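QA checklist item 7 of 12: single-chain prediction sanity check.
[x] sequence parsed
[x] length recorded as 188
[x] structure emitted
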Amino acid sequence: MDKLERQEQIYRTAARLFFTQGYHDTTMRKLAREIGIDPGLLYFYYKSKNDLLYNIVRRGVQELIQGADAALESAATPAEQMSLALTSHIRYHLRRKEEVGLGSEIRHLEPEQQAEIRDMTRSYVRKYALILAQGIKKGAFRSCNVPLTTLLLLSNAAPVAVWYRSDGTIREDEVIASYVEHAMHSLR
């Protein structure tokens, strides 16, 4: 296994353990045992357990931002942008359940790390607020409290990560289409 593959294996396993057992109850020894490597090897990839959590949370927010940016760049109208951005948002929540569930664990990060994650998250939320405000201005969306509506749109995806099962009877595409349809309907 090359360095990048091993780093990804550590990342995925840590995300799962942090999610299922909690950050405090997941030791680096437990993580190493789960992967089947010497605990000292973990520090070759990540400086500390805190560094690992920081990387997981930061990467998750970066992926969300990239999805929103792609929607903004690839669609011409606010309605199309919102539809694509929400599709990306809900897809992330369906596929990255463990990372989504680690949002509350940022309290374990260093203050400057927490501040960075909060700034990134605010930037992400602002992208949706901008789409919504432009859509209202152009008549694509009804008038509403933009900050509140934005937070409602984004926070409604989190519970989906809790109940959705990829091996269940409802397909991912059905959940995404239904979520986006209902969200867009509420905006019109």
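[x] summary fact logged: The CA atoms of residues 54 and 125 lie 20 Å apart.
[ ] second reviewer sign-off
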